[in-house]
Prior knowledge:
This protein has a domain at about 1-175 and about 225-255: Rossmann fold, CATH 3.40.50. The protein is an alpha/beta fold. A 7-stranded parallel β-sheet has the order 3-2-1-4-5-7-11, with helices on both faces. Strands 6, 8, 10, 12 and 14 form a 5-stranded mixed β-sheet that branches. A two-stranded parallel sheet has the order 9-13. The model has no long low-confidence stretch (mean pLDDT about 95). It is about 40% helix and about 20% strand. α4 (about 85-105) packs parallel to α5 (about 140-160), α6 crosses α10 (about 310-330) and α8 (about 260-275) crosses α10.
Amino acid sequence: MRILVTGGAGYIGSHVALRLVEAGHDVTVLDNLSTGHRWAVPSECTFVEGSTGDEVCLERLFDSRAAFDAVMHFAANTDVGESVLNPAKYYENNTVNTIHVISAALKAGVKSFIFSSTAAVYGEQNAGIVDEQAQTSPSSPYGHSKLMCEHALQDFAVASGDQMNYVILRYFNVAGARPDARIGQATPNATHLIKVAAEAAVGRRTGVSVFGTDYDTKDGTCLRDFIHVEDLATAHLCALSYLADGGRSDIFNVGYGVPYSVRDVIRSMKQVSGSNFEVVEAARRAGDISSLAADSRKIQSVLGWRPEFNNLNTICDTAYRWEKRLLNGDVAPSAPV
């Protein structure tokens, strides 16, 4: 299949692009490299440097690659805290630009659209573990911007007479790296806990801050459902096959349903790395919620998704080994370890 991957030079997009290439698909990556990296794009992909907000660029891309069978849309900003301070950036880049991509895809006759959404659309939930029917009530502009994209995609699909079917994947907390350390997260100024802890373990940071120790949880710190990036990539390939086989538009959680605390993650990273990095307690961050984990039975039953890396030590170990390689500066798109 011929597939367009927006944001394919970023953390998640590059992992999915590589898996698509390995599965024999013809992949084009569109990325403006604002947070992604050219070296993260598999050498087998066609790379186009450009923005999802550039309608002329999108029109030319879809005209030149008129036979795209599917679009996987990853391009977005994802920092919850930043979204609270600068909501305009998130509504423009995440929501408005996604509408540009959906419109261009529909105009070009693309049949399948897979959208990178987030568990942040749920907000604070009394149950802690949520299924796709849970009420959506985002706690941050980031979550709101993604939920608006979901609504737009649903409305556009209906208005088109279901010319284009979609899968919306609501990610929980994505972490880790390829087990072979070929690629991993290299986002500048990352705020994701496991990435930050891995940087501290290799000495790139002086330590890790724990934002809030008074939550109503087992140890006072936030609880999160961490999913390995390779299991998330597998979910995208399952979604692609599902739509190609005539599957109807739907929404799926992607997570393990097992919440770990901030202290659990720090303990695991110290164990796999052997580094006793400093831990500092700090005040809560705006937009953070106390606990959230995925009920992922639907994606397993409908798409046949089966996780392979659902172990916190495994996630931390792959993140740490990638961080060591990144520190050494020997990363390249065609240089697996």
